Amino acid sequence: MITEIPGVQVGHWTDAGARTGCTAIVFPHRARASGEVRGGAPATREWDLLVPGRRVERIDVVMLAGGSAFGLAACDGAMRWCEEQGRGHPTFAGPVPIVVGAALFDLLRSDASVRPGADAGYAACAAAAGGPFGLGAVGAGTGAMVDKWRGFDHARPAGIGSVVERDGEIVVGALLAVNAFGGVLEPGAARPPVSELVVGGGPIENTTIGVVATNAALDKAACRLVAESAHAGLARALEPVATTLDGDAIVAASTGAVAEAPLERVRMLAARAVEQAVRTAVDAGG
Q: Torsions phi, psi of 112, nearest 5?
C-alpha cells in the first residue's frame, strides 16, 4: 500500500448506501508534487499549482472524491482540517493549506443527490493513518465501475487499489480510484474488436484519479515526469484510456527521504505500481 512510504497517510469517508465517498492522502510536511491530467472531462481543483515553475512546490493533501464536480467540495473540509493542524504554505497572514482535488463521476449508481462535502473531506483527513486501509468499494471508489466502453450493461464494479514497487531503498506507491470508461486488459487475453465500442451517455461519467508517491528526493519537474509515467501505467492496464469521456488525473509526490534515486528508476516503478493498482482496484471492487 502507498502508506508503506513513511509519512504518507490515507483516510476514507464512505456512504455505502449512496455509493459515494472520498479519500484523503495526507503528506508529510514539505512534500513536493506535480501532476498531469489526460482525457477530455476532468474535475479538478488547484491543479495549476502543480505545474513546474509555479511558486508553490509543496502540498498538504490530495483529496479524491466521488460526486463529480460536486465532490470537489470535500477539499473545503481538508482545508479546515489542515488549518487546525497548522499546515500550509507560509504567508504573512498565516499558513494557507495546499489541497489538490480530483473527482470522478459516480452519480449513476445510486442516490445522485448525495455527494461528498466539506464534512466528508474533514472526516477523511481525520481518519488518515499510516497503516493499512480499505481497498475496493470504499472512499472515492465506493461507486466506481469499469468496462463501460461496450455499454453500461457490460460495466462491472471497481474501486480503490493500491500497490507499492521497490528497488533497494527506493519505494514508489500508487493509490487509484478506478472508474474508467475502458476495460481492464488481461495479460495474454484477446482484445475485443474496436467495433464493439459504444459511446453513450454524458461527457463526464467516468475517470480514473489517483496519486503516486515516492520516498525518492525529486524536484517538481521530476515529479511531473513521474506523473507522465504513471499515465503510461494506466495505458498498460486499461483500454481505451484517456478518452474524451474520461478525466484521468494523477498527482506524483516526493517525500524526499532518499537522496540518491535515479529518476528513470522511479518512473519505471511508478508505471508498474499504477498498472497493478488498477488491477487491484477491480479485483477488490468485484
A: -70, -10
Domain count, the chain: 1
Q: CATH number for the domain including 231?
A: 3.60.70.12
The whole domain housing 116 covers: 2-285
Does residue 217 contact residue 258 with C-beta atoms inside 8 Å?
yes
Angular region, 188: left φ>0, alpha ψ -120 to 50, beta rest: left
The 10s digit of each residue's pLDDT in 93-139 is 999 999 999 999 998 877 888 999 999 999 999 999 998 999 999 99
pLDDT in tens, 145-184: 999 888 877 889 999 999 999 999 999 999 999 999 999 9
Neighbour count for residue 240 (Cβ, 10 Å): 17
Q: Does the predicted TM-score (pTM) go above 0.90? A: yes
Helices and strands (DSSP H and E) totals, the chain: 4, 13
